[in-house]
């Protein structure tokens, strides 16, 4: 009787282990890796290759490629085999996530030695081409990725310089004055630069974290740093600096617009005066050309008649006419003197 019960229990155990637990299903958002006696089933001698790693890192993070089981099922496995399922859909997590402690913000120090609080999120997904690193490479791959991301973020904040503020100084005279004023107001206030350039900071973080797929088996989809807060005692001073900076920029823009308007009006006045002068000179030049043509063709009499007719209106409008008489010659002067001497004898 005992032997029969033992055999019955053994059959039930074998049926449960071999038949029931031997079947498994992989969901659409999952991928599975099968291990036999603890060793993952590999794809021959193929290794994970990533162009974002340098030579030293390629030797350090040299992981084999595994045979991945896609969605579907039911699949069969032997009792000595084990299935490791991984969710590959895109997920988001706060930057403050840390399994070892609770925190409401990430502290970072700027280049002007101000401690700021950084908040945001990152989107990530499991790298299907490197499931070995995610499943067997490290104990907590997400924790490693978050630590790597925070370290890169703090290094970038500590050395961040506004690229737009540097390029403006090398432009024209007016623009250089505007840029110089802005740089002087913003000098030592890197929080303003960080707030203005959050898209650049996010792009930099995405570029620097492209190698996380080869390191830890997690690909960074997007970095969403949304908030950078200065200390409370510095916030009021920053607000005053920003207000002054905006006022100076507005005054400079207004003065520049007025100057450009005055220059435009002056140019238009010069153009109008030039056009009027050309309009007055053009008929005179045409008349001179016509008169010269008449003179060359032998029309001296007609030319003298034209000049006489042109003088008549001028003489009518003149109030006083001054006639210049040519001086007498020597013969005429001697004749006049002789007649004057002979006049007494005739008397």
Tally of separate helices: 12
Number of strands: 12
Low-confidence stretches: 166-175, 181-188, 333-347
> Pairing-aware structural class of the strands and helices?
alpha+beta
What is the alpha-carbon Rg in Å? 49 Å
* Share of β-strand residues: 15-25%
Assembly annotation:
single chain
Order of helices and strands: HEEEEHEEEEEEEHHHHHHHEHHH
Provide the helix percentage: 55-70%
Q: Looking at the structure, what is the overall shape?
A: elongated
Mean pLDDT: 79
Overview in brief:
The protein has 347 residues and is an alpha+beta fold.
3D structure, described in words:
This protein has 347 residues and is of the alpha+beta class. It has 12 helices and 12 strands. A hairpin with a 2-residue loop joins strand 2 (30-36) and strand 3. Helix 6 packs antiparallel against helix 10. The longest helix has 65 residues, at 232-296. It is elongated. The chain starts with a helix and ends with a helix. The model is unreliable at 166-175, 181-188 and 333-347 (pLDDT under 50).
Please supply descriptive tags for the structure shown above.
347 residues; four-stranded antiparallel β-sheet; alpha+beta; 55% helix
Layout of secondary structure:
Blueprint: H1 2-20, E1 23-26, E2 30-36, E3 39-40, E4 42-47, H2 55-60, E5 64-66, E6 68-69, E7 72-76, E8 81-87, E9 91-94, E10 106-109, E11 115-126, H3 131-137, H4 141-158, H5 163-167, H6 173-186, H7 190-196, H8 198-208, H9 212-216, E12 218-229, H10 232-296, H11 300-317, H12 330-346
Antiparallel strand pairs: 1-7, 2-3, 2-6, 2-8, 4-5, 9-11, 10-11, 11-12
Helix pairs in contact: 6-10
